[in-house]
Each structure stands twice: as structure tokens, then as C-alpha cells.
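During the reporting period the student researcher (J.K.) took over the structure-prediction task from the postdoctoral fellow and processed the backlog of single-chain submissions. One of the processed entries is reproduced below for the supervisory committee.
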Amino acid sequence: MCDTNPPPPDPLTWIDGELTRLDREGRRRRLSTREGPQGPRIVADGETLVHFGSNDYLGLAADPRVVAAAVEAIRTEGWGSGASPLVLGRARSHLELERCLAEFEGTEAALVFPSGFAANAGTVAALVGPGDAVLTDRKNHASLLDGCRLSRADVRVYPHGDWQELDRLLARTRARRRLVVTDSLFSMGGDLAPLGEFVAVCEQHGAMLLIDEAHATGVFGPRGRGVAEALGVEHRVPVRVGTLSKALGSAGGFVVGRRSLIEWLINAARPYIFSTASPAATVAAAGAALQMVRREPQRRETLLARAATLRQRLRDQGWNVGNSASQIVPLIVGDVGRAVRWSQALRGRGVFVPAIRPPTVPEGEACLRISLTWAHTEEMIAQLVEALRQL
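J.K. obtained the following C-alpha cells:
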């Protein structure tokens, strides 16, 4: 007997319409595939390109010393960790890296997370909850914004870098606990948070302050600790988050601070408790990179000097680089379609600079995001500048 009933409706048909909308608005993202190691020159989808889209700021991701450390860790500890840190997924290599991070950052203790996203989201949600208030910069990284939402605290957004409005918001807040969260170096604008003013405001109101040094670790400060060190306020910031996946060329995130803070996160940060520990190879690679950050300060010094020169050359061409003060240089073009077309035009000239569109940046702030690294040569930078001139 034949089944004459019509097939049930497809509950996912709405996705096709949404993808069509993204295409129409120029906001649909598509994956490319890189061949070979991360570096200043890559092969992507069969094309050889000078790569200005990487956060490998110190050129350590494929450094032979970093690779050797990862290989040795695989040989001695295997690859997968097999369990969460609290269920014996944590290896001696994790312990050693945490000791090195605490020493490097000048704090009592450190804790390694499987990703920078997990470190931010987990730490925010562990520090505040219902009945508390968390105040966040409108341009903070998505991991901080999602952590604010996950915390179920009262979320209040202050204008970008506006410490005076933050002061007013804190003065009006009567929550049980108050937490201020900010990037130190903003990942799309390349600008720095006014940490001195933020520290003073938080101290005045008795608020906790969490800063994310993801894009600044290894690059800023006399010892490479980040923007807080560069501005002389690091010991007045109670919660500092960093990443192993950018200047340190590996994978993972970390939090540093007093020992009681780290003990609390071990017991309260859900992404730490319920995630499998990072493979020993990733933390061994990060440990090797950390030693290079300490021993080779010329990498960050050269990088920041080249970035300052590049920003000026681009301003002289008439580009709007916003308030960038770092190795991240946005070319703000506003229109989404223009950003996509110009990114494609640069690719046709052998240069990869990604187009950044909403929701990664606010409406009207689409840009080409140049990410400069120590490994870029003067010739590569000249090729970029000439390609941009031709646009």
C-alpha cells in the first residue's frame, strides 16, 4: 500500500532565504583554504599572496623553535588531552606554562583556557551574575560581550573608550558587584583603551576591572606584557586576560591575577570546567614562544616602528586609519560593498587584506583591516602601499 501523505515541511528552508539576503547585502562570508605554514606570504585557494590578515604579530607561528617544542611535547605526552583539566586532562606542560605566564606577567598565578574566547566568556560569567552589573565597551570583542550576556548580570554598554560616561554609569549603579570589561587594544580599530582613566574610575567606585590584552600581549610594554604595562597601570588591574593564539603563535587563552582569583575560576568558570584541556603540544609551543618574547624584544620594537611608518604613509595617501596606534591598521571605508570590492581588487594584485563588515564592526564602519607582523619585509609593505595607491 502506497503512502500518499505529503512529506513534512522542511524546518530549515528559512536558511536559504537568509543566505540570499546576506549575498544581497554583501555580508555573506565564505571560507578560503590556506596551504602550508602561517607566514607573511601564503598560498590560499591556489593563489600566492602577501598576507596582511594574520594575528601572528611576532612571526612565531611557524618558527622552528616553536615547532620543535610542539613536536617534542607530542613525542613525550601524545596529542589529545583526553579530559577536562579537573578530570586529569591537565598535564605537566600546562602547569609549567602557567608558572611561566605568572612569572612573565608579574602575578601570583595564571590559568590556561582552551581558547581566548573561553577565557573571556568564562571569566566574566564567573565574576558576576544575577543581581550584579557588568559594564562593557560597545566595541569590545564578541567573547567579552557574550560573557556579559551569559553572566545574566545587568549589562550596561558605554560608548567606545568613554571613561567619563563609565564614571557616570558606575555612580548610578547600586548592584551587589560591579565589573568593568574592556579590550586594551581593540582588534578592529587598532586603538588603545584609556586604561589609566579606567583604573582610576574603577578604584573610585570600588568596581572590578577586567582587561583583555589579546592583541597586545607580546607586542606592547617594555617586557611585552601588554598595554597595561606600557601605561604603567598593570598592578592596579585585578583581572588580566591574554591569548596564546596571536603574538605567541599557538592556541588557547589565559587569565592572570592573584591566587584566589585563579582558584575561583577553577571552580566557577564553566568553559574551563567543562572543556577538554588543550593538547600538551599547544601549551609547549606557547611556552617556547613566551621565552622568545622575553629574549627578543627587537621583534616588538621593530613591529611597532614599522606600523607607525605605515600609518603615516597611508594617511598621506588619504586613507582614514581612525585612531589606530598599533600594528592593527584599519582603512575605514564605511560602505560594505566598497570594502568587499577593494579587498578583492587587492587580492588581484597579490595582496590579501580582509574586508571587515558588520556585525564584526558597527554599521557604517566597514573597513580593510591590515594586520602587520614582524615577518613582513619592507618590500612586502611597499607592495601593499602601492596596491592601495592604485585603488
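The committee noted the following: The mean pLDDT is 95.
J.K. will present the remaining backlog at the next meeting.
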